[in-house]
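Objective 1b of the project was to move from sequence-level analysis to a structural picture of ligand recognition. The entry below was assembled by the postdoctoral researcher (A.K.) and checked by the PI before modelling. It contains the amino acid sequence of the target and the SMILES of the bound compound, S-adenosylmethionine.
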Amino acid sequence: MDDGLVKKIRRKGTVTSAFGTPGRINHDSSKFYNSRLYEGLETEKRVDYIENQLNPSVLNKILCKSSVKMDELPDNSIHMMVTSPPYNVGKVYDRNLSLGEYRLLLKAVFSEVHRVLVPGGRACVNVANLGRKPYIPLHSYIIEDMLDIGYLMRGEIIWNKASSASPSTAWGSWLSAANPTLRDIHEYILVFCKQTFTRKTPTLRQNTISKNEFLEFSKSVWTFPAESARKVGHPAPFPIELPYRLIQFYTFKDEVILDPFVGSGSTCIAALKAKRFYVGYDIDKRYVDLAEDRIKEFPQLNSSTTFENMDQSNLKQGHSFLRENEVAYRKKIKPKAKNIKHKGMGNKKKK
Ligand SMILES: C[S@@+](CC[C@H](N)C(=O)[O-])C[C@H]1O[C@@H](n2cnc3c(N)ncnc32)[C@H](O)[C@@H]1O
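Corresponding predicted holo structure:
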């Protein structure tokens, strides 16, 4: 594009065009959003920002119970959920539910998550589809149910596991059009939010994402290897990279990340790595123990770079630095009233 045209577009800004546009500069998309395509669709609401304080006793804890009821968590107290639900495919923790019962279980948990998320809080669901005859598009059912609960959808990420996908030989009919089958080398990460698309905060909060991470994580296809179930000791762990990217992209430092199906604790480790807090739930005590062991072993726990001001003497006391950070966290966000209501507060850029 020549400089003259760029300057002209910059001055005027682009608008949604019937034939697309060469770029998006000061783009005015009102024509698109006012079109009949959006008629009847749930859109964002004007809501006050509310952030209730979590009881410190659940901060950086994994609770061994079903996440269908998370009574320990007040409404509007969690900044993001990252999870991968049980797949109901006969793994040791699966309960052989019918598709209808399975959807009801996930819907109950994700409704509870909706209650505890702050306005604008994000919910990210990692899911793979199942079977072939016929193919069960779980991701599509989950989208339907999340919209039904009242979530707004922000987008979906295709996780390309190609480099690590097991060399499946389920070809169907080899070299024949009779009944060839697709060999999935991808999973989905479905991204939703509560009530509004923009996150507000009661106090100035820090972004921790680097420019290179932002350029990479804002793409809708992510490529990195899967995690080895055998190595981790859980039937279906996701790699720490998955929650780490979501946490960096969608939350601020020191915020609280929830995983209602925590398994081996990958989300918790990613939260610590990104200097956030976590709360996890799992019904199976063995996985709670496994997650706690993995968190303890997480290399950064033994590195003074995990939290900038960590005292070396705390290293010997295992998790004591977490308690210190909990105290700092409480001091930092402890509201005077029972909850904080902030009208129209945004985030100022960190200078
Ligand atoms: C797919 S795994 C999660 C794996 C996890 N992302 C990781 O990296 O290890 C699902 C987990 O949900 C747990 N689970 C199943 N039903 C549950 C429920 N109602 N409440 C809490 N956890 C549940 C299972 O025990 C299992 O560990």
